[in-house]
Design a protein that fits this description.
It is a single chain. With about 350 residues, the protein is α/β, with parallel strands linked by helices. It has 2 domains: about 180 residues, Rossmann fold; about 120 residues, Rossmann fold. Helices cover about 45% and strands about 15% of the residues. It has 13 helices and 10 strands. The strands form 2 sheets. Strands 1-2-10-7-8-9 form a 6-stranded mixed β-sheet, sandwiched between helices. The structure holds 4'-deoxy-4'-aminopyridoxal-5'-phosphate (PMP). 4'-deoxy-4'-aminopyridoxal-5'-phosphate binds next to helix 8.
């Protein structure tokens, strides 16, 4: 008997996610909005793709060795993804969450998921940098908090046996999406894509897929989204994140968003608020049966807007980034976080 119906590793479950065409949410509009169901990845989000790629490349480049420890600063989906990949591959994973974030929104389920995959999770105290945080706008404060988390990882990485994934500045993050997410999207839609829309956190997803589209000569409009309280494009354009990193003594390195902007991506940027994102995420759940998180709601909200502007018959594609259960401690007032 040939036993072919099994897979060797849980890592093989990453990617090759299905693409669904929305029905009720787009009814009567005459446009096609396609969503790629990234919440079906094994740790519950699109981040599995980049976690695997970054770890494999770090292994290949000799930066991550047997019995090594992976460190990263995360609030959301990179934590569970690195914890999952690390546990399958036998690495220690130590994740840092700026303590401030446990106040403004509740990452309880994300933290529990990281711990269940065997990671150590430690809050990073931000109050020691109280002066740096004083008088900042909400968006600037988010950048400062990220910089504080990055400093913690930088300090650890200088010790033997530690590797910092540095998702914001690690180009292998974007490469993962160029080679897997982007390639799959082009294949699934046979290159018939008029616009590609995605939220920007690190920018890995938006830029990686955009690069795949450019390489395949698919002439699609690229639209990037920022949450109102984390203006990542502005952080790069005005050097906001870099200034905080400099103040904290973290050596400079280009971020994915900086590289992306230099290459003229995206064609358009939109800022989306909590309410629009959450309401669309609710509709996706109730009307389409798609149990996705809040940034997925933002993605679809914007994708519909873009499709309407492009006109009848337009094909717009986006991703459903993560699963809604990640946000349930905040229900019914979940935040749009990236
Ligand atoms: N939405 C959610 C919920 C995320 O966790 C992230 C990444 N942290 C993003 C969007 C943005 O993805 P990227 O980092 O690839 O830009």
């Amino acid at each position: 008997m040939m036993m072919l119906g099994w897979t060797r590793s849980p890592l093989d479950l990453i990617g090759n996610t299905p693409m669904v065409k929305l029905r009720r949410v787009t009814e009567g509009l005459g446009v096609n909005v396609f969503v790629k169901c990234e919440y079906l990845n094994p740790s519950g989000s699109i981040k599995d793709r980049m976690a695997l790629k970054m770890v494999e490349e770090a292994e290949r480049k000799g930066k991550l060795k047997r019995n090594g420890t992976i460190v990263e600063m995360t609030s959301g989906n990179t934590g569970p993804a690195l914890a999952f990949v690390g546990s399958v591959k036998g690495y220690n994973v130590h994740l840092f969450i700026p303590s401030q974030w446990t106040g403004s929104y509740n990452p309880e389920n994300r933290i529990k998921t990281m711990k269940l995959f065997g990671a150590k999770v430690t809050p990073v105290a931000t109050d020691v940098h109280r002066e740096m945080l004083e008088g900042l706008s909400e968006s600037e404060a988010a950048a400062a908090i990220i910089a504080i988390g990055m400093k913690k990882c930088y300090e650890l990485e200088r010790r033997k046996g530690f590797w910092w994934a540095d998702q914001i500045r690690n180009m292998d993050n974007a490469l993962a999406h160029k080679e897997s997410t982007g390639k799959e999207i082009i294949e699934q839609l046979d290159g018939e894509i008029d616009a590609w829309v995605a939220s920007i956190g690190t920018g890995g997803t938006l830029f990686g897929v955009a690069e795949a589209l450019i390489e395949a000569s698919v002439d699609a409009r690229v639209v990037g989204l920022e949450p109102k309280d984390a203006r990542v494009i502005e952080w790069a354009e005005k050097g906001i994140l870099n200034n905080f990193l400099k103040e904290l003594g973290v050596p400079k390195k280009k971020s994915i968003v900086e590289v992306m902007l230099e290459k003229g991506v995206p064609d358009e940027a939109m800022t989306i608020g909590d309410r629009e994102a959450r309401e669309m995420a609710n509709r996706l759940c109730q009307e389409e049966g798609l149990f996705c998180g809040i940034s997925s709601g933002a993605n679809v909200y914007a994708a519909i807007k873009v499709a309407k502007k492009l006109g009848k018959g337009a094909n717009v594609v986006t991703v459903l980034v993560d699963s809604r259960d990640r946000y349930l401690p905040e229900y019914p007032n979940e935040h749009y976080v990236i």
